[in-house]
Design a protein that fits this description.
Keywords: ATP-binding, DNA damage, DNA recombination, DNA repair, DNA-binding, Helicase, Hydrolase, Isomerase, Metal-binding, Nucleotide-binding, Zinc. Its EC number is 5.6.2.4. Residues 596-611 have a biased composition (Basic and acidic residues). Residues 218-362 form the Helicase C-terminal domain. The structure is a single chain. This protein has 724 residues and is of the alpha/beta class. Helices cover 46% and strands 12% of the residues. The chain has 32 helices and 19 strands. A seven-stranded parallel beta sheet has the order 3-4-2-5-6-1-7, with helices on both faces. Strands 8-13-12-9-11-10 form a six-stranded parallel beta sheet. Bound molecules: adenosine-5'-diphosphate.
Length: 724
């Protein structure tokens, strides 16, 4: 049987499994059923795709997300895994074509919608085929306890029974509750399955909660600062989506919107623009996101507080699926609690469920108010313990100065007290700022001792300050026509028993400073994606391009070491990216010292980049200088010393020279570098596994073979083959 790690690298281009993946894969290929619970973006697909390639026969993936199937199948085919899908979006002819391919043995992974399992035609065809695995994606859909119950999931177990030979069954979900888990085991009729619960923590997501900020201004600043990054902004209502959409598009931001009030067509178009990187920002209600697999979403902003932690965590989980750092920002205002309460109250749920929803809303609100690590709070909610504070949330990270706002708070509270009957925030602001508004005069509020005592605040600032007081529970805010009221905490502040300490507002930060080469490589990717009609991330993920832009591979041997680059992709796109990288290196006169990530983790600091020295006047390329020195008969050590280059760089200079179309028509003396016996040993391994990747060659050989030695031997072979 194939080796799992080799499959992972050669098809998907990843060098290591993520936590949990390998155990799950081992279990599946040993023929044991599994249930795997992983957070969104945790890397579930690899867990059934790698076994699919390791076992004889077809893997059937049952998925409810029709919109995702095409992308997933495109992605698999693009790395050389023969796949197809069958769902209602295909015509009869297209379905026939898939059936034919299945019968011809041309399909390794087949995605089907659950409804298809009831079709006799499908059953007839499938029952004669060797099926190695049935993978059930979004397995919680089988449970009525889950939030996406699908009745057709109930037929899965019967479908499996009808097969000639029972394949191994793997079930995947991100829903962790015990009821759902038990239902999955029972209703899918799993055979004594091993249950894997991967940690729910998504370390790369920074959790930020902002209270009392001017939301629209905050978003505008943030989005403009990060205009090249992909992001989603979630709003609680359609109206808010539309209004924010207007504001941002009027400022020239490339933005799309998504909610149930738009036509199917418009929604589809906006979603595609976002997925294909034609627009960088999506403003949406929570209707958007199921079935979005885009890995490079760098931020998710909640314009309003969501109604429970499950929803919140699922929505922020859409950020950073590629494991790159991403920000999740919740902009909280006390009115959000009212809005969510209203939505629950006016909904159609029965009283028991309503109570349940309200209690979940309370926990969400508690998260916002909590003073400790936000991540700890969330993970505890999911039954997981975090040993140390995360240092990657706004509570943990806040180094902001603590400002004593007790006196200002007392001014506001005593004004609320003196106004006798409850008013909205606007009126309180007007009184405190000494407005001459007619209503104030009519109600004689200008006679209060608190009239005009906070003129040093602007209207907006004071509103924000009052909102912050409400957010921290120093005064209450609510009612059908929301008004401000005192509470027991207000009295403590007035009496001087409780200090009001606020941390200063966090400055908006630019997410990442991408280098120029990254932008160039993104353009190459966009062009390929357009040509092939697939989303850019199917070509390469952002993290792959970033790795390329930092380490700057210049040949296939180096390129394959980049995370996310497999053999098929090298074949298809390798040259396009390598050429741009080489162009960039030449234009900027950069010397690149290649570093092996896998083997040299400690000293790996990316490339040492430095301007080349010596006689280079900017016109002669770095590799040409090296070649001239070889032509002069200098040996490698001497060149290395004179030019201050690593031996690896010299090897890559020779490769660059050949890649530029030159022949090696001069002598290169390899005699000091290795002997015949060593050469034969390396070539034996090369014959077996090819020479794209040096690491597996090295792994097959004994210690004394250094990377340089192996590379020289390969280089000599290439030169000889070219000459022959
Ligand atoms: P899920 O289905 O659990 O939400 P996916 O299977 O879509 O997550 O994986 C999320 C992202 O993580 C994808 O971009 C995938 O390519 C990437 N990924 C998965 N496994 C690995 C790995 N071992 N190394 C690097 N990236 C991985």
């Amino acid at each position: 049987m194939k080796n799992a790690l080799k499959v992972l690298k050669s098809y998907f281009g990843y060098s290591n499994f993520r936590k949990g993946q390998e155990e799950i894969i081992n279990e599946i290929v040993s023929g044991n059923d599994v249930v795997s619970i992983m957070p969104t973006g945790g890397g579930k697909s690899i867990c059934y795709q790698v076994p699919a390639l390791m076992m004889d026969g077809i893997t059937i993936v049952i998925s409810p997300l029709i919109s995702l199937m095409k992308d997933q199948v495109d992605a698999l085919n693009s790395v050389g895994i023969e796949s197809a899908y069958i769902n209602s979006s295909l015509s009869t002819l297209e379905i026939r074509d898939v059936f034919r391919k299945i019968e011809d043995g041309d399909i390794k992974i087949l995605y089907v919608a659950p409804e298809r399992l009831e079709s006799m035609e499908f059953l007839n065809i499938i029952s004669n085929i060797n099926i190695s695995q049935v993978a059930v994606d979004e397995a919680h859909c089988v449970s009525t306890w889950g939030h996406d119950f699908r009745s057709s999931y109930k037929h899965i177990s019967r479908f499996i029974e009808l097969l000639n030979k029972r394949p191994v069954v793997s079930a995947f979900t991100a829903t962790a509750t015990k009821e759902v888990r038990d239902d999955i085991v029972k209703l899918l009729n799993l055979n004594n399955p091993k249950v894997f619960v991967a940690g729910f923590d998504r370390e790369n997501l920074k959790i930020i909660i902002e209270k009392g900020v001017n939301k629209k201004q905050y978003i505008l600043d943030y989005v403009i600062e990060n205009k090249d990054q992909s992001g989603i902004i979630y709003c609680a209502t359609r109206k808010e989506v539309d209004s924010l959409y207007e504001v941002l598009s009027s400022k020239g931001v490339s933005v799309g919107r998504y909610h149930a009030g738009l036509s199917d067509e418009e929604r589809k178009e906006n979603q595609e623009d976002f997925v294909y990187d034609r627009s960088s920002l999506m403003i949406a209600t929570n209707a958007f996101g199921m079935g979005i697999d885009k890995p490079n979403i760098r931020y998710v902003i909640h314009f309003n507080m969501p109604k429970n932690i499950e929803g919140y965590y699922q929505e922020i989980g859409r950020a950073g699926r590629d494991s790159e750092k991403s920000e999740c920002i919740l902009l909280f205002s006390p009115g959000d609690v009212q809005t969510q309460k209203y939505i629950i109250d006016t909904g159609t749920l029965n009283p028991q469920r309503k109570m349940n929803e309200l209690s979940k809303l309370q926990t969400m609100t508690d998260l916002v108010y909590c003073n400790g690590c936000y991540r700890r709070f969330i993970l505890e909610y999911f039954g997981e313990e975090l040993k140390e504070d995360c240092n990657n949330c706004s509570n943990c990270e806040s180094t902001a100065e603590v400002v004593d706002k007790t006196i200002d708070a007392q001014k506001v509270i005593s004004c609320v007290y003196r106004m006798k009957r409850p008013y909205g925030i606007g009126m309180i602001v007007d009184v405190l700022r000494g407005s001459k508004n007619q209503k104030i005069i009519d109600f004689k509020l200008n006679e209060l001792t608190t009239y005009g005592i906070m003129k040093d605040y602007s209207k907006e600032e004071l509103k924000d300050f009052i909102n912050t007081l409400i957010s921290h529970g120093y005064i209450n805010y609510g009612g059908e026509y929301p008004v401000v009221k005192q509470n027991t905490k207000s009295l403590e502040v007035i009496k001087g028993n409780e200090k009001v300490l606020f941390k200063e507002e966090r400055k908006i930060q630019k997410l990442d400073t991408n280098n120029d080469l990254f932008a160039i490589l993104k353009d190459v990717r966009r062009d390929i994606a357009m040509e092939e009609g697939v989303p850019p991330y199917i070509v390469f993920g952002d993290n792959t391009l970033k790795d390329m832009s930092v380490r700057m591979p210049i040949n296939n041997t180096q390129l394959i070491e980049i995370s996310g680059v497999g053999e098929k992709k090298i074949e298809k796109y390798g040259d396009k990216f390598l050429n741009k990288i080489k162009e960039y290196i030449d234009e900027n006169n950069i010397e690149v010292k290649w570093s092996h990530k896998d083997n040299n983790k400690k000293s790996d600091k990316g490339n040492d980049k430095k301007q080349s020295k010596g006689s280079n006047n900017g016109k002669q390329k770095s590799y040409e200088i090296t070649i001239n020195m070889i032509k002069e008969g200098k040996d490698f050590n001497c060149i290395s010393e004179e030019r201050g280059l690593a031996i690896t760089t010299i090897i890559s200079h020779i490769e660059q020279y050949m890649n530029a179309g030159n022949d090696i028509d001069f002598k290169i003396d390899f005699s000091d570098l290795f002997n015949n016996e060593e050469e034969n040993k390396v070539l034996e391994v090369v014959d077996k596994i090819g020479f794209y990747r040096v690491k597996p060659i090295k792994d097959e050989l004994s210690e004394e073979f250094s990377y340089d030695k192996i590379k020289f031997i390969i280089l000599k072979k290439i030169i000889e083959e070219k000459r022959a």
